[in-house]
Specification:
By secondary structure, the chain is α+β, with helices and mostly antiparallel strands. 17% of the residues lie in helices and 44% in strands. A hairpin with a 6-residue loop joins β3 and β4. It is elongated and about 130 Å long. The relative contact order is 0.11.
């Protein structure tokens, strides 16, 4: 584009001049052009006009470029907006950007448990010695008459997804509880950098994996609760809402995780617990319809939480191990070591699992050692193990994921009377043994180093029905056998609250339960 007409008119006006200007210039010795300006001035003006024309052309080109870029940007935004997807796969609302860099999925689950505790009728404290947690008068009452009823074990809502391609996030809030529902607490809240192919760095509140049973999602677990030994070890340095920083990774046949953890969110101590939690897993054999899993794990409490200000040497740093039967409608704990003043704790575990078509077996063993703090007493040790198996009546296998090195629930055609499909039916069995006794003896007064925490053995038989991928019903029978001796003194409180030293304070009973679950 040019402005030649404007330039020509402007020069003509200058060259034409005016009569007074021409007379005034007649006295000048410099040559003039026309009657108005000198030749040098005309050339300078012409050069300036040429420069202005060039600047004008450049501005016009820039404007054209900006318009093209704006149009292209608007088109890209329109295409991305149009490509954003919204899905409801398995009832889970999920949003994803067109380029896959951003996702957001709403998550939710409720698990409603109902249970009947079939135990001997309660008697007075002075003659009925069945007890719960040490120093807890309420549990001393409840242990003699465990409460039938219903309880929302979990009632969770949250969101998870990806941002800018390399960042994963998860936020999950839980209103369920053990025995009683809670006002709400953080179950998970973490951020993860996942740009590296074999490593993901996570920080926030989450449960560092401490075994195959611990790492298995409760939405697809074989029973309503983890085996008691697994749950106990989990409570030491893992568990929902545990503040931690960890590294995760896996290949086609291997999986690892390593994390440093602190307290559970909402738990305040003078100095938080510091612990290391690690796990490795390997699949040595795998085929179209079979698989073998091997694993090992550890939890090391480096610094137990302090019970008071460290104004002088000698502030206690207690560790306590205790657990319930393998359902939480009544939250009473029937095995309990009490507080052990400790410098640290080491737990280690071995994992085995195998699957052949629709048959599945899994087992773990745990050893626990506590280092007493500044004490001449012997360091106590405890252990626990379980073995469990499942057979899918309708033929579908449990699903294994190397990303977590765990098994998930089987899947099949949804239940439909019209189509005569019955969903997935699964039989399950488990035996668990948690031993929290150390030098417990056979009766009478205990030795100084003894810990009479009790031994809990549980047999469980279950029937699981999966009508579809979001609904599950779990019916189960448990036979619970607790062998536990009274430590005497005032371990449970004054007077009749504490049975005589060496008295049997355990019990044997059955539990019938049903879980109803909806998870998306």
């Amino acid at each position: 584009m040019t402005n030649r007409p404007i330039r020509t008119a402007f020069l003509a006006l200058l060259l034409a001049g005016a009569a007074p200007a021409a007379l005034a210039q007649a006295q000048s010795t410099a040559p003039v052009v026309g009657g108005g300006i000198s030749q040098e001035q005309a050339l300078a003006l012409s050069a300036r006009l040429d420069a202005l024309e060039q600047q004008n052309r450049e501005l016009q080109d820039q404007i054209a470029d900006l318009k093209a870029q704006t149009t292209a940007g608007d088109q890209a935004i329109r295409e991305q907006v149009e490509a954003t997807t919204v899905s409801l796969a398995n009832g889970r609302p999920t949003f994803a950007s067109g380029d896959g860099q951003f996702t957001a999925s709403l998550r939710g689950v409720f698990q409603l448990d109902a249970a009947h505790y079939d135990q001997d009728r309660a008697g007075p404290l002075a003659s009925d010695f069945r007890r719960g947690s040490l120093g807890d008068a309420t549990e001393s009452d409840r242990a003699r008459d465990l409460g039938d009823g219903a309880n929302f074990r979990r009632a969770r809502i949250g969101i998870e997804g990806r941002a800018f391609g390399d960042w994963n996030y998860n936020f999950l809030y839980d209103f369920g509880g053990s025995g009683n529902e809670e006002a709400g607490r953080i179950s998970a809240a973490w951020l993860e950098y996942a740009a590296f192919p074999k490593a993901r760095l996570r920080i926030g509140a989450f449960s560092p994996p401490s075994g195959i049973e611990e790492a298995t999602s409760t939405n697809g677990s074989l029973f309503v609760e983890r085996a008691s030994p697994s749950e106990l070890v989990r409570s030491i340095a893992s568990g929902d809402g545990r503040t931690a920083i960890g590294l995760f990774g896996n290949g086609d046949r291997w999986n690892y995780s390593a994390a440093f953890s602190g307290n559970i969110v909402g738990t305040q101590t003078f100095d938080e617990q510091l612990a290391f939690v690690g796990r490795v897993a390997y699949v040595p054999m795998r085929g179209p319809d079979y698989l073998v899993h091997l694993g090992a794990n550890t939890e090391i409490v480096i610094n137990p939480a302090k019970s008071g200000p460290e104004v002088a040497a000698g502030v206690a740093s207690p560790l306590r191990l205790r657990d319930r039967p393998e359902i939480r409608v009544d939250g009473t704990r029937l095995v309990d070591t009490g507080n052990i003043d400790a410098d640290g704790l080491t737990a280690w575990g071995l994992e085995f699992a195998a699957q052949r078509k629709n048959l599945h077996v899994q087992a773990e063993y745990y050893g626990i050692e506590i280092d007493r703090r500044a004490s001449a007493l012997a360091d106590p040790s405890f252990d626990g193990w379980y073995v469990q198996g499942a057979w899918t009546i309708t033929g579908q296998p449990r699903r294994y994921s190397i990303a977590t090195a765990t098994f998930d629930s089987p899947r099949g055609d949804p239940f439909s009377l019209k189509k005569r499909t019955w969903g997935v039916w699964e039989l399950a069995a488990r035996y668990s043994d948690l031993d929290l006794n150390y030098l417990a003896g056979s009766g009478g007064a205990q030795v100084a180093s003894a810990v009479r925490g009790g031994e809990q053995k549980i047999i469980t038989l279950g029937l699981n029905w999966y009508p579809n991928q979001v609904v599950r019903f779990q019916a189960a029978w448990q036979h619970v056998d607790v062998d536990r001796l009274s430590p005497g003194g005032t371990a449970f409180g004054a007077g009749a609250l504490t049975p005589p030293a060496g008295a049997q304070i355990g019990q044997e009973f059955d539990i019938w339960s049903l879980r109803t679950q909806y998870a998306f």
